[in-house]
Amino acid sequence: MTFILQNNEENMMKDKICLVTGGSSGVGKATATGLAALGAEIILVSRDESKAGETISLIKMQTGNEKISWMYADFSVQSSIKEFAARFKERYDRLHLLSNTAGMIQLNREETPEGIEKTLAVDYLSHFLISNLLIDLLRKGSPSRIITVAGGLRLIRNVKINFNDIQFQKGYNGLKAAVQAARARVVFSAELAGRLSGTGITSNAFQPGFVKTGMGNNFPQPLRFMSKLIQPFLSNECKTSVYLASSPEVENITGKFFGKSKPHDFSYDPAEGKRLWELSLQLTGL
Length: 286
Ligand SMILES: NC(=O)c1ccc[n+]([C@@H]2O[C@H](COP(=O)([O-])OP(=O)(O)OC[C@H]3O[C@@H](n4cnc5c(N)ncnc54)[C@H](OP(=O)(O)O)[C@@H]3O)[C@@H](O)[C@H]2O)c1
What we know:
The protein is of the alpha/beta class. 44% of the residues lie in helices and 14% in strands. α3 links the parallel β2 and β3.
């Protein structure tokens, strides 16, 4: 498969610096590939040199874009995210796109070395932290965009963030934790949009559709086998994230939840956004 686009499109993101967390696989990889095809400079975040290297070679081959690199960070560990942000700022003086696309599913409850439940840490708090740590670079790159992956709208609408036990001290369930984190990402994305009003930085969340994923790779059998079975039915592309990250049509749209490149109704109680923001500040020490 090749992503090389027609001449009028291939330079649309030329000179744009795009940081794609989770860029080595799944939604992040599809987003990075789509943006590379539009001429962007891409920096992937990964914990794994060989996985990042393979993805970079593939993206270069598929798009002909050589401006693809990676940087190390473990997004389950806040000190690693902070150290990464500092290294990123030494290397780049501006940022045009932050794609919050790292994520995972953790079947059994685990805590990070910093004592935070791991799904909350990777699937939500890492996005909160990196977005806040890189805001000054996004300001310098403005007009700039933050896009944040979520999940199915129906699931997210129907779930509540359990502020009394957001880290599932009781009754952990990997799917419930992932859906709660997905809601947190959408509420955070909209809350962030309000806080960034007038800065030239937009913040939107998106439902990626069904994209090839590595999420089942660490599952025990037979779940791993089932995950492999569905891969041929999933897409290598994520049109919605690439649209949100690049299209002039959405340059001034902010605080929305997109699916299939269209905004969907998603409303939340502003008190939920404020409470989540304050809790996230506490949990990240910002
Ligand atoms: N795929 C879909 O169709 C789909 C649909 C709805 C929602 N989502 C959501 O999108 C998110 C990503 O899913 P995916 O399908 O892209 O998964 P994936 O194929 O497994 O990719 C996950 C990415 O996240 C990165 N990552 C995971 N843990 C990390 C950590 N501790 N530190 C740094 N990076 C980390 C991985 O990087 P390294 O392993 O290289 O470090 C990898 O690049 C998940 O939250 C998922 O729920 C996906």
